[in-house]
Each structure stands twice: as structure tokens, then as C-alpha cells.
Known about the structure:
Layout: H1 16-24, H2 30-34, E1 40-44, E2 47-49, E3 58-72, E4 79-86, E5 91-97, H3 102-105, E6 111-117, E7 128-130, E8 134-138, E9 146-150, H4 159-172, H5 181-186, H6 192-200, H7 213-236, H8 251-259, H9 265-278, E10 285-290, H10 296-309, E11 313-317, H11 321-333, E12 342-345, H12 351-363, E13 368-371, E14 385-390, H13 398-405, E15 412-417, H14 423-429, E16 434-438, E17 448-453, H15 458-470, E18 474-478, H16 487-503, E19 509-511, H17 518-529, E20 535-538, E21 551-556, H18 564-571, E22 580-585, H19 592-603, H20 607-619, E23 627-629, E24 632-634, H21 643-658, H22 664-678
Parallel strand pairs: 2-3, 5-7, 10-15, 10-16, 11-13, 11-14, 12-13, 14-15, 17-22, 18-20, 18-21, 19-20, 21-22
Antiparallel strand pairs: 1-9, 3-4, 3-6, 4-5, 6-8, 23-24
Amino acid sequence: xxxxxxxxxxxxxxxxxxxxxxxxxGFFTVKDLLYYYPIKYEIRDxxxxxxxxxxxxxxxxxxxxxxxxxxxxxxxxxxxxxxYFHDGKKYGKAVFFNQRxxxxxxxxxxxxxxxxxxxxxxxxxxxxxxxPSKYEVLKNEQDEEKAIPVYGRIESLSxxxxxxxxxxxxxxxxxxxxxxxxxxxxxxxxSRKLSxxxxxxxxxxxxxSLRMPEVKRLIxxxxxxxxxxxxxxxxxxxxxxxxxxxxxxxxVKYFESREGIKLTNSQKKAISExxxxxxxxxxxxxxxxxxxxxxxxxxxxxxxxxxxxxxYQVAFMAPTEILAxxxxxxxxxxxxxxxxxxxxxMGSLTPKQKKDLYEKIERGEVKFIVGTHALFQKKVxxxxxxxxxxxxxxxxxxxxxxxxxLKGKNVDLLxxxxxxxxxxxxxxxxxxxxxxxxxxxxxxxxxxxxxxxxEREREKMFDWIxxxxxxxxxGFIVYPLIEESEVMDLKALETAYKDLKxxxxxxxxxxxxxxxxxxxxxxxxxxxxxxxxxxxxxxSIIEVGIDVQGANFIVIEHxxxxxxxxxxxxxxxxxxxxxxxxxxIKNRGVGQDALKRMEIIKNxxxxxxxxxxxxxxxxxxxPLGKQQWGDVVFKIADPVRDIELLEIARDExxxxxxxxxxxxxxxxxxxxxxxLSEEVDFN
Length: 683
């Protein structure tokens, strides 16, 4: 095993407390930290001695500490640390408020750097006094001028602390090469260790950029191992099967007549492609791609019904309990599924409920099982699972897709997404999936009027919402509770709920967020669906959650905190039938990038065009910034920007497997993938 696959607790200086913090944020191995790239670099290219630092200017100044003194403010007795320092010619004084611990940091005789604005002489007649925003105790002269990597905080761990931990990794661990030697020579790549060192410890004259061989090598590495994974999992599922003895009938006509609907030509074409795949000697792996409201669920349900009527079991997985409950609720109301034994399986069921359901699934009594990750826990055994549907596939990885497919024998797999990605890019990244695209809408082209609302217009907007709610219309007000740990945001959400209830006592207002218990969430969902709630105060939990046909307005607070795809998804919750309205609240001080995203959402309704704009915006970002595409998170690579390297990596990965050039390093990686697919945890 590679040394860097050891746990983070093996790093000197990482004790139980820091280990817990790192584990909570997904850092389990030394490698996880090694590939945690800086978000930017702070360039310290000129440092002045005290005597040359000009009053009124900001910058870095250096000196030797001569004295450290503790004082207190007159009121409230707040601690003040005074640090006196000199360069042999003149003296300066740095002042720190409420940071008593600095008495242990600054000792007489140590060399220090401060960053701040120099002031004119104070009452002690020193050359200047400053309030530094940054400081550093120097260990050697070479540390004066350099590029300092800045990392995103990991809970309470500062950028400095993260950098010290990474420095310890380079001291104590052997970072071996992981790309085959012939590829290193062929493309003249620097070694893995040198490339990572260039990112974490750059020279002042070699700040990481896309032109650097070390950066190109790390981009290639990401693409190469992703393509190896894709090829490996595709081969794993590439088993021929006997042709099924399926009874074919006009499922479209059957479905339409019972549900009283008219499927679009795109839906009919997708159903036809899926039914054709059911007959293939290789199991189906198909992506159903369509904008919000294009009717993907009806395609999934019609094809499920076809398979159930042929005697097989079908599993339909959603990423959240709310969405799973909604799908199940819809199925129970549909005439087509009246005689189909269906069940809802989720983590929130009691142990007894789960046990009873597991037994029924294993005996084959239940034919259609809807649920969350719970569908694919090790305890769940299917009698004759033949078809698996995954809704919002970007929430699930390649290893999970494989583990799901292995729950039955030669299972057909349909994954669905409402986040459109251009076909050429999708086939490059997800070449294991065939693609069906829905380009029409069941109720005609969906047009949602989108408005950017400033603070002055807020009252007018709420008056309009009040009238809509009084006339029987429904809608959402979304607050940006991005992570469950954001306590302040949760407070803001609950405060808004109370304020609105007091302000409009005659309206039926509800609240929904991720911290609520599953039972509470389901009760709120049902009430909203049945019209007992007019306005739902909620979070981005609804992005892939609630589909209420009568909802016609949505207010998105702090839209600057969301990406284009998220904004489009949330907007898609309204206007399913009839006109829809979306209000983006523009707050003071919002940056130009956020305003640009709001303008795009305001002017474009087409999800495919929005997706292209999203690609343009994300493709031009920080070369070391995290990029997310579907179920893959690239840390340094960008599939649009780095398309040439992506294609090279894909070809090399394919050739290695097809021509059997599997080195010991690649074998080790495949063993890791095998372990990964066996240990996928769906709890």
C-alpha cells in the first residue's frame, strides 16, 4: 500500500481533535490532504526594513523584536499587545487587540514580518505605529520574499495550519510515482512529487499557471485515473446475457389512456430507445437528459410498468427522502399502477418496517420499490431485479452506479438528470452511457418570468405575493442554507418564517429545511401538495425535491450564493402548469459575477443554453479551483478548458486496458476500485 494512503492521524501534529475535524470534512488519508490545492497565492515580493517604510503606505515590513508589552483598553479592559521592533536604525510598534496569545509568539530577538499600513509617529515618538492584518515569525532570511499558498479553511483549521500539515507530509512520507513510466517519458511530465511540491511550495518566480508542466501533469493525472475508473467499471458490467423473452405491447398507448395524458414525441422516442435496449444482449446503461419539467419521470414510469408487467422487479432511486416520497405518492395515485404492488424504502423507516419490507422484496412480492440509498444496502436482496432508475444521477458516483447494477443479474440502468451538459462533453466524460434527450415540454414551452428585485422593490413584491396566495396560488421563498452546520442561516430562515406569519396571519405559511425529522418533512410536503400551505419558507432542499403543479411563484434570497444550474433547477419548481414567476433578491454589495449569473437566469429559460453559459463561466475560473461536472469533482482539471489533455488521457487509459499494458501501479489502482465498489455505503 502507498504510504500516502495511511490515515491522517499518521501525520506528525495531527492529534485526535484535528483528525475529527479532517474526517468530518472528508479528509481521511494523507493523500486527501496532499491533493487539497490552494485557492490562491499571496505574493510577498517586496519587504521593507523599518527605516524605509513610508508613512501612509501599506505593505510588508521586517524587523527584530526588542520588547513586547501587555496593556488594556480604558473601557471593558480589552487586552492590547504592543510589539516593538527595529532594523538597527529606526523603531516601529505593532498593535494587536484582544490577542493575548501573541505574548508567547513574539519574543525579544526574533525576526518578524508584519503587513499593514504605516502611521506617523505616536506619543512615544516612534517612527510609526501599525495595526497588522498579517504577521510571521521568520526562521531564515529566505522566507522574507515568497509566494504563500492560501487554502480554504477546514472548519477551525486556518490556511497556515493546513500548510504546516502539508509541509509535514513532504518531510515524513514517500510520495511515489503513480502514472506508468512510459507515459511520463512520452509526454515529458515532471514527477508526481515535484508537481505537487510546485503547487504547495511555489517559487516566487514560478507561481502555478496552466502553462507550467507541473500543473499540466496533475491535470492529466486526474483525467487519466478518472478514465481508467470509467473503463474498469464498464468492463465489469459488460456481461452478455441471453435474449429475454419479453412480451411486447403498446406501453405508450396503455399509459396515455389510463393517465389521460399525451406524451411528447421526445418522450415516445426515449421510451422506444429504452425498450429496444431491454432486448439487447448487453445490459442497458442509458442517460435520460431533459430540462426541468420535460417529463423524464413519465418516461421512467412507463418503462418501469413495461418491465413489471413482464414479471420483473424495478427499483427507482431518488437522492432525497422528500423526492422519493413524492415519486411514491404520485405512483399510488396513478391508474396504471393500481394493481402493482409498490413500496417505499428509506433510511427513516423503523427496524421492524425495514425487516418486513426486506422479506417481501426478497420473496418478490413487491414489484416496484421506490426509495433513497436504502434500496441498495447490503441487507436488501432482490428476487429478480431487472431495471434500476436513478433520478438526479449527478448525486451518485461511478462506483455507486456499479454497486447498484450488481444488485441483480444483468440489470438495465437508466440514469436521469435535469442538469443538461453538451452532448460532446458528456460523451467524453461518460462514454459508458448512451444518451436520450427530451427537448419538448408536456404542457408546451415553459416560460417563467424572472425579475431581479432590489431592496426598495421588496415590499411591492411581497404585496403581490400576498394577493397571489389569497387567490389560491402557491409558491416558495428560498433561503441559502447551504450546509446543515450553518446555524446562523437556519436562524435567518426561522426568523423569516415567524416574521411572515405575523405579517400575514391570514395566509397559510409553512417551513421546510434539512434539519427537520423525516416525518415532519413528509407532513409538510403533503400539506403543500394538497394546497394546505400557500407559501413554503425553505432552502435549496427543494432543488430536487418538491413538484407541486399549482406552484406559480418563487423568491430566491441571496441568489449570489448559488450557481446557474442550481438557480435554474429551483426556478423550475414553479410554472409546471400555467404562468410562473421567479424573483431574485439583489442585495447591496453583490459582485459582478453574481449579477452576471442573475442576468443570465433572467433572460434565458432554456436549460441547455444556461448549461452552456455555466460551462463558459466555470471554464474560465481559477486554474486551481474545484470544478464539478455531474458526479465527478475535478480539483484542478477543467473538461472544457483542458479538452485536449482529457482526450489524450481517455485514449491512453483505453489502450492500457485493451492492449493489456497493466503495470503493478495500475493493478494496485484496480484493486482499490474493486474494494471501493464492494464497500460502497448507501446508509
